[in-house]
Amino acid sequence: MAAKLTYCFKTDNATNGLPKLMELQRMAKLTLAFTIEPSDQIAVQEQPLVLDCQVEGIQPISITWRKNGMLVAEGMDPMTLANGSLYFSHFQKQKEDGTSDEGEYGCVARNHFGLLVSRKARIQAASKWSFLPNPRDISMAMILSHPGQDMVVPKVFFHEATELSCFLF
């Protein structure tokens, strides 16, 4: 939603003041305002990603993007869509040239009357947990003892990745 501006002024003649009021109202409509700003996201490797940025104001409005403070080069990936959003067809944490799509992004909107910078959005790659496909056989023993009770010694054996065996001795 665009910011609303209020102007107060005193004139000697209401007729002379009307053109000034109309000019101030026209100038207030020239301001740029974000209707949608980019937000932090967790991205999945090789999946599409969209950073939203939409602005209202007097046309023509141009939108550019910055990553870590540097201008994002216009190209195929990422590319700025007609609505101002930044589109990644295949998000990459690590590219062949050593760069990454991860970082802080912001959009910059500009028209003939000014410039507006969005808040920064942090993009991070999702992480995977590493699991051993076939863990080695292990044995584990734990002794539980309470006063006046017999000692209980459970033993746990891991034989396969999907099998868990527990025995009480």
From TrEMBL:
Answer yes or no on keyword Repeat: yes
Say which domain of life the source belongs to: Eukaryota
Entry keywords, A to Z: Disulfide bond, Immunoglobulin domain, Repeat
User: PROSITE patterns under this entry?
Assistant: IG_LIKE (PS50835)
- Please give the SUPFAM superfamilies that the UniProt record associates with this protein: Immunoglobulin
Keyword field contains Cell membrane: no
All residue ranges annotated as the Ig-like domain in the record: 19-124
Name it.
Ig-like domain-containing protein
